[in-house]
Predict the 3D structure of the following.
Amino acid sequence: MTVVVASVPTAVTLYSTPFGKTSFNIFPTNQVNIATATTTGGSWLSFQAPPSTPGFTFGTPYTINATPQPGMASGTYTGTVILTGSSNANDNQTIAVTLVVTDNPIIQVNNSALLISGAQGGPKVSVPITLVNIGEGNLSIGNANVTSSTADFLSATAANTNSIVVTADPGQLTPGLYTGTVSVTSNAANSAQVAIPVEFTVTASGQPTISQGGIVNIATFLADSIPQGGIAAFGDQFSATGSFYTNTTAPPLARQLGNVQVLVNGAAAPLYYVSRQQINFQMPYDLQAGQSTTVQVVSNNVSGNIRSVQITSAAPRILVWPSNVAQGWYGIIVNSDGSVSLPTTAGVQAFRSRPSKPLETITIYCIGLGQTNPGAVSGAPATAVPLEQVSGISVSVGSLPAVAAITPAFAGLTPTAVGLYQVNVTLPNNVPIGGSVPISLNANNVMATSPT
């Protein structure tokens, strides 16, 4: 569990399993000296200073680590972190650190605001949030309670044992920014810490709007690095309520669906899917890594807002089955006999499923491996002759970092598909056995992981 703390706090409470580790980052304005001390539990508290060269830069964190020691039983332990030597008196603080060692579930807390957008007079916007348990035992969600800057625009409900659904209703709100907080009760040891900030942007009726942080990758729906060939955008008023559009013919992909276009640096991009609040599109392969790229939606000749994203050469992401389909977080991986790699108790409808075997060649489906050789064409189906391949790919099966990297037999675009990559790899004889074994995909030193 990692907590990011702006500036220097006076007190922090951390949670860990008996054999785990937790940390938090602090950001003093100047270089400081740090000393740690514990009053109970032994030497479980330590710190890591930023590199001494090229010199201190504000924004580079000091990391405070809390690591339960062998024999520490479940309970509460205390210590202090003392900062001295800064020319800014606000940096010179004594931080009271409380470590709770527990056998109960622990929710991984994300301090980032949930960004939602909607249109004035438009439909409610619902966003699912999965709460990750990094502790022990089974997580169980009780209630999801809300507070908001404007009454009644925000609501939340527990969807199942580890997720909630947050809903914002633009109703007749005037265009502007509205804020709120969703607090979750659960059986987690740190349940009281789970307060999710929400920012709801209401736009004027009629204008297509890409949400802040709304340009995401399609595997995780997170606004992280976007490679050539990456896809997806979220917002509102892309098309009429209840309407959606897909390609009705074989590739190449259309660059306009339902009178909707996505302009990337001013040029229409290939489209997979269009609805009121989601567009799946392809980032052109001719974009340069490191380039700042603009994205804009035009719907029925009405131009929307412009968002900028940074393009990277590769951002590998293993595609996963929806948790409500595969009853767990499993990669979309196909065995040598055409069955899908899942526990036999988690079969996906219309597919045969079974666990993968040692020495078997499996196919991992993914996105974000970037440009190929020979070069892929934006919106066009991948060719079978010649195969459009990617170099610099390796696969590891098992918990990092102790497992060896495997060179795949093939890595590249799936023939006849658009923007879909596959990695064919033979599992080693000593592959770990279990219902959920981590698998890691490395593309030119950029890592993606998924259980399988």
